[in-house]
Amino acid sequence: MYSIHDEEKIKELFEENKIPKFRYAQIENAIYKNFVTDFSEIQTIPKEIRTFLNENFYYTSLEVDHIVTSENGQTTKILFKTKSWDLIESVIMRHLSGRNTLCVSCQAGCPMACTFCATGKLGLKRNLEFSEIIEQIMYAAKLLNDEWAVLRNVVYMGMWEPFLNYDNLKKSIEIACNQKKINLANRRVTVSTCGIVPGIKKFMVDFPQTSLAISIHAPNDEIRKSIMPVDHTYNLEKLMTALDEYVAKTNKRIFYEYIMLNGVNDNIKLAYELGKLLKWRLAHVNFIPYNPWEWAWWIEYKATPRFLIEKFQRVLDEFWVPSTIRATMWDDIDAACWQLANKKNEEE
Ligand code: SF4
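^ thats the input. predicted complex w/ iron/sulfur cluster below
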C-alpha cells in the first residue's frame, strides 16, 4: 500500500492500469480541497477507480493516540502513533486574528542532544516520511476546516532537526505549498533549525521564499556549546556566515529563537553580546520562556523571571533588533512542542 500523498506512485499505477491522467486532478481536489478522507466518498470518479484506490493506497498511516485542547481553546496538541509505534506530536495554535498555526514534527525523537530538551535526551528514533509530515498537516487542516477555520501557517518546529531529514522536508514543503494541494503561502511556512549549515545552504536555494528560524539560544560559543552540542560542529562563526549568505540571497528576515534559562544564558551582559551579534543583520528575536518539565526530572534548568526577559528585550531595543516574547498559550496542556510525547514515553 502507498500513501495517497505520493503523486508519483499514483500516476505510475494509473499509467500501468490505463486509468486516464485527468482522474488524478479529481482525486487531488477531493483530498486536499474537500477534505475527503475515505476514497469511497469521492463521487467524481467511477466506482472501479475508488476500489482501485482502496486496494492500493491509504489516506493516513498515523493513528491519533491522544488529543487535548487547552482550557482557553486556543491550543490543541495531537499525539500520533506512527505505523512503527513511535510517538510524534503536532500542535495547533489558534490566534484570535485567524492566523492559525500548526507546529509539525519531522523526526521521531531528535539526535541533537540539547541539554535543556527532553526530546534530545531520547535520541533519534527515525526520520519521518514526507507523507507522515503531510498527514499531520492534513489532520490539522481538516480539524480547523470543521471549525470553519483555515490553517494559515506551518512551522517545522516540533520534534526535529528538519535539516537532518532534508529530502522528506523538501517533498513535504512542495506539497504544502502546491496550489492544487494544501496551498499554503511559502512565506507562511517556517523551518526551524538548530544550525545545520549544509541544510541552510540547500534550503536557501530550494526555498528562497520560505521562512527560516534559527535556535541560537546563546550569543557566544562557550555557552552555546555547553547547551547545544551542534555548536561543536557548526560554531557561531560558521553559522552566521551561512546566515549572512542566506539573507544576501533571499533578502528575508531570519527569526532567532532564544530560550531563557535562568542562570545559564540570561545574564544581562549576554543581551549586549546578542545585540552586537545581530545589529545590522536582518533579524527578529523570539524569546521563549522556559517551561520547566514536570515529566523530565533529570533536566534541572529553571525559567527566567518575566522581568528579566523584558530587561533582556530592552537591551536589544537599544541595538534596534526587533524582538518578541513568545506567549505561553498552552501551560495547562504540557505544550512545549514535544512535551506530550515525552510524557507518554516516560509512562510506557
Ligand atoms: S532543542 Fe530541538 S534540536 Fe535540540 S535536542 Fe531538542 S528537538 Fe533536538
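The CA atoms of residues 154 and 291 lie 22 Å apart.
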